[in-house]
Design brief:
Elements (H helix, E strand, L loop, with lengths): L1 E4 L5 H12 L13 H10 L5 E6 L2 E11 L2 E9 L4 H15 L5 E7 L3 H9 L3 E12 L12 E2 L5 H11 L18 E8 L2 E11 L4 E9 L8 H16 L4 E7 L3 H9 L3 E12 L7
Bound molecules: coenzyme A.
The site of coenzyme A has 18 residues, from strand 10, helix 6 and helix 7.
Length: 289
Amino acid sequence: MSVTPIHPADLSDVARLIAKQNANPETQCLYSGERAEEIEAALRKQTAPCYVVAREGRTLIGAMGCEVEEERGYLQGPFVDGADFDAVADALWSALQMQIASLTGWEAFLHVRNERGAAFYLRQGFRRGQTAQIYVLSASALQPIEGEPARRFTPECAAGVRALHELAFADSPDSIEPFMNGDDETRCLFVYVDKGRCVGYVAASVNDNPREGSIDLLAVDASVRNRGYGRRLLLTAAHWLIRERGMPQVGLTVRDMRADARGLYQRSGFRLLHTGVGYAREFPTNKRR
Ligand SMILES: CC(C)(COP(=O)(O)OP(=O)(O)OC[C@H]1O[C@@H](n2cnc3c(N)ncnc32)[C@H](O)[C@@H]1OP(=O)(O)O)[C@@H](O)C(=O)NCCC(=O)NCCS
């Protein structure tokens, strides 16, 4: 077996290998694409995709990659076709780590039924994180907004949105700041204002590949929950993504612990697509101050 960095000539073969593995929940790695054309297009868009491939003779038998964002490595794979999974996965992982230096940590997100992937990450010193559900709303299931839609964010709501975000997502690294920049065409922030006070917000974004809208953050002040504001925010964002931005579907990921939100998504036309489990390994010595 030989393991090498990916070469541009490998991209379509690698995309096909990933699509095949991702078609089966038992070998599926989430957030790495499902259709070969989309996976290939996403790889081609990157100037130097951080991927390694394994071959037996001339046959491609495995691939593993990583996207780096804010010094964290988001892993894709290991994808192994047929052969000895453990040996190929270990070889891919060693080669991949050599390509990337100075991260604060690694993360992976696998289908809950991908047991061989789970065993691999645990063996490599990762810890199992939370279970999360991926939901999707197709354009044909979009429901009407009852009552006034939520309104677009304006800078006078900034302090209110920040305060809500800190309370609702204290344990999450996701920032609300990029959504407050009104000039960004790929993102939108809506707020719900009650008696002059910002009591809820929803952050949405548009993705090219796969072409899909996404609901990134949603929160309503605890003092005014169960009045329908959450649903109105969610549907306002879904209408913006589907009707205004032409997205064929809208996706979102919700952690298991947020049971309130799951009920709301299901009643609002979203259907459960996948259940996944996160794995993470930290490097405390590289932590940013
Ligand atoms: C999830 C969240 C945004 C929901 O906000 P909300 O304003 O309470 O949402 P809604 O009022 O539209 O719906 C919540 C419930 O109230 C009920 N409800 C809505 N209007 C109602 C009314 N007029 N009278 C009584 N009940 C009502 C809904 O039926 C719904 O119940 P269900 O989920 O069991 O079906 C809010 O709980 C929250 O901020 N949670 C913390 C952050 C979070 O988890 N965000 C999602 C992360 S992915």
